[in-house]
Amino acid sequence: MRGAVLYGPRDVRFEERDAPRITKSTDAIIKISDTCVCGSDLWPYRGINPVTQPTPMGHEYCGIVEEVGSAVTSIKPGQFVIGSFFASDNTCPNCQIGYQSSCQHAEFVGGAQAPMLRVPLADGTLVVTRDVPSDDLIPSLLALSDVMGTGWFAADATNVKPGSTVAVVGDGAVGLLGVLSAKQMGAERIIAMSRHESRQKLAREFGATDIVTERGDEGVAHIKDLTDGIGADSVLECVGTQQSMTQAIHSTRRGGYLGYVGVPHGVELNGQELFYAHVHLHGGPAPVRRFLPKLIDLVWNGKINPGKVFDLALPLDQVAEGYRAMDERRAIKTLLRP
Ligand SMILES: [Zn+2]
Asked: From the CA of 104, how far away is ligand 1's center (Å)?
C-alpha cells in the first residue's frame, strides 16, 4: 500500500509502505474511510520538532474493521469504528478515571495517512458506531478522533456550564471546535480570538458571540473590556506558544479556569505570576476516548457537525498539497480520501 511519510522539513512523500499486520493478539487492522492532516503534524513538518528518520504520518482515523487479533473480544470485522491517537486499554486506573491518554499501556497510534492502519489495544481503544454511517457523516465522525475530542476536553476541563463566559485562544480546528463545545455546554458568551476572516466566520457559525483580533496584551485588554474588566470564566488555550499561554492566563478571571490543549513549545510558567492569578489550570493530551460515545451520539443525531472544519478535501495521494495548504494557512484542515 502507499501512505504518507515525512522525511524532513516540508518533505512529505506518498510512497510504498508495508501494509500493517496484526503483531499483537490485542490489535485490530482497519480499512481507513477518511483521514486528515492535524495542526500538530505541522510541528515536525515545519522542522520545529526534528525528524530523525522517515516517519509514517497521521493519527486521526475512522473506518471499517478488517481483521482482529485472537484476544480481541468486542470488536469485529465489518464494524465501523473510531479511535483516538492514543491507544488505551480502558481498564487501568488512569483509564477508569477518564484519562485514557495517560493509560498505563498507552501507545501512540501513527501512520493513519494510509489506506490501512494497525490499532493496538483494539477493545479499549475503538468505539463502534451503531451502524455503518452514510458518507456525509464520515468527516464529522473523523473529527472526533482528535480535534473535536480535544476541543471538548478543553471546554470540559474549564468547567464550561450554562451561562458561562468563555474565551478561546487559537483559531485552528481545535480552537474552532472548542467554540462548538462551549456552545453545546450552554455557554452564553463565547469570545473567539482570530485574525482570519474565514475562521471568524466558522467560529460564529459554531456559536462565537464576539471576535477579538488583537493578540498579546492588546488581546487581553479587549477581553477585559468585553467582560467588565474581570476576564472570562473559562479560557481555552488551543495553540501552545508562550504568547498564547500568557494571553490565556491573563484573560482568565480570578477563580476561573484555563484549559490548555495546544502542545506546548517553549512554554514556561512564572510561579509568582501564577500564584497571584488565582486560576485553575488543567490540560494535556486530551483523553478523547472518554468523550467518544457521547460525541458520536451528538454527530449521529445531527446536534453537531464538527466536520465543517475540513475546508479542503483531497485524494490521499495529494497529501503533500494537503500539508502545504495548512502550512500556508490556505486551509483550516485537510481531509484525505484513500
Ligand atoms: Zn489504561
From this structure: 5
Give tens-digit pLDDT for 19-54. Answer: 999 999 999 999 999 999 999 899 999 998 889 999
Map grid coordinates 501564577 to a residue: 274
Convert the pLDDT of each residue in 218-265 to its tens digit: 999 999 999 999 999 999 999 999 999 999 999 999 999 999 999 999
Task: Give distance in angstroms: CA of 198 to centre of ligand 1.
Answer: 39
CATH for the stretch 150-283: 3.40.50.720
Residue 210 CA, ligand 1 centroid: distance in Å: 39
Dist. CA 270 → ligand 1 center (Å): 33
pTM of the model: 0.96
Torsion angles phi and psi, residue 113, rounded to 5 = -80, 70
Topology classification of domain 2-146+287-337: Quinone Oxidoreductase; Chain A, domain 1 (3.90.180)
For the chain, how far is it from start to end, CA to CA, in angstroms? 10
What distance in angstroms lies between residue 203's CA and the mean position of ligand 1's atoms?
34
Residues bordering ligand 1, an ion, CB closer than 5 Å: 88-89, 92, 95, 103
Domain borders along the chain are: 2-146+287-337, 150-283
CA gap 217, 130 in Å, rounded: 48
Neighbouring residues of 135: CB distance < 8 A, sequence distance ≥ 6: none
**Cα–Cα dist 6/53, whole Å:** 8
Distances (CA, A) of 127 to 188, 267, 292: 32, 34, 7
108 C-alpha to center of ligand 1: Å? Answer: 13
Q: Which of 200, 156, 209 is nearest to 178 (CA)?
A: 156
